Amino acid sequence: MTAASTPVAAFAMRPDLPALLFSSDDLAALRSIVVLDATVTITDFATAPAGLLDSVEILVTGWGAPHIGPAELDRMPRLRAIVHAAGTVKGHIDDAAWDRGVLVTSAANANAYPVAEYTLAMILLAGKGVPDYIRGYATDPALYEREADPAIGNFRRTVGIIGASRVGRRVIELLEPFDIDVLLYDPQVRQGDPVLERARAVPLDDLFAGSSIVSVHAPLLPETVGMVGAAQLALLPDGATLINTARAPIVDQEALTAAVRDRGLRAVLDVTEPEPLPAEHPLRSLPGVVLTPHVAGALGTEVRRLGECARHEIERFVAGEPAEHPVTKEALIAVA
């Protein structure tokens, strides 16, 4: 590959992200196949170097990326690929990118791994009653002498998964080594889908009636807003746990608060509306609730997985190979 034919790449994201996303080995590998100045990060196309925009062919985006619409695309006449080193591309890439034939890829599959791992941990801990033990034993040493609740434990427990998304499928895969029965609700899953080898598809209400732990992994769409409401929560058995790492509006938060307060339902929430919840919100003080500050997705060392995914996509693009994780305009409608 000659210098003249080497494609130009550029970062468009938060200025601190490239160093977090890409190891020195990743950057070295990229510089061997593209022209990339890792010291320049585009945070606003209006102030970006005109020469860079004129020549860039591969735009590597991430959290905090500026919006890419028709005007921005006009300033990047050579742009052929947008490689997103994060999850969803909703909100920062206009339909015009696809209309102009620009390839768009995402690291959403890589981001699904830590979310699924968080979910697996919470499922197993909830099944064992650990959140209740943590709260109780902190103030009551006598808990050590008491007999365990005969309802705790994960042997032959039934877990319901809402949504055969990337995360939902990964959770089901991670649950396979355990003696846990899995129910799945996703109206888009068809007969023959491999996920049905590990989970039994059921209607939404049947999932709630038959599960003692339910985990939400559906995308946020107009038809999924409030999908988990008072009627569904009422079907859960006493002591059941609802886990939400997807999007807060999928669950009716007022109905959930009431179910926790009035029925003793447990909840593990990594997403709330709003974020963060006000200090006086009842979910902060009700027993049976575990709140985490939106930490299920890639953080710390896990962020490097997103960068590695982006690097592989760029390598495939430069080699003329098809993208591993392309995002189409049509598919965008049905993803988170």
Number of domains: 2
- What is the CATH T-level topology of the largest domain? Rossmann fold
Quaternary state of this entry equals single chain
Q: In which order are the strands of the major sheet placed?
A: 8-7-6-9-10-11-12
What level of helicity do the residues show? 25-40%
Which overall shape is indicated by the principal axes computed on the Cα atoms?
elongated
What is the overall pLDDT average?
Answer: 95
Name of the CATH homologous superfamily of the largest domain: NAD(P)-binding Rossmann-like Domain
- Helix run count: 13
- CATH architectural name of the largest domain: 3-Layer(aba) Sandwich
Beta strand count: 12
Residue runs with pLDDT of under 50 for 5 or more positions: none
Task: Give an overview of the whole structure.
With 336 residues, the protein is of the alpha/beta class. It folds into two domains: 8-106 and 300-332, NAD(P)-binding Rossmann-like Domain (Rossmann fold); 111-291, NAD(P)-binding Rossmann-like Domain (Rossmann fold). The protein has 13 helices and twelve strands. The protein has helices spanning 17-21, 24-31, 50-55, 70-74, 95-99, 108-127, 130-139, 166-175, 204-210, 230-233, 253-263, 303-318, 329-332, and strands spanning 8-12, 35-42, 56-61, 81-84, 103-106, 157-162, 180-185, 200-201, 213-216, 241-244, 266-269, 289-291. The strands form two sheets. It has a seven-stranded parallel sheet, sandwiched between helices. It has a five-stranded parallel sheet with strand order 2-1-3-4-5. The radius of gyration is 23 Å and the shape is elongated. The two termini are 38 Å apart. The model has no long low-confidence stretch (mean pLDDT 95).
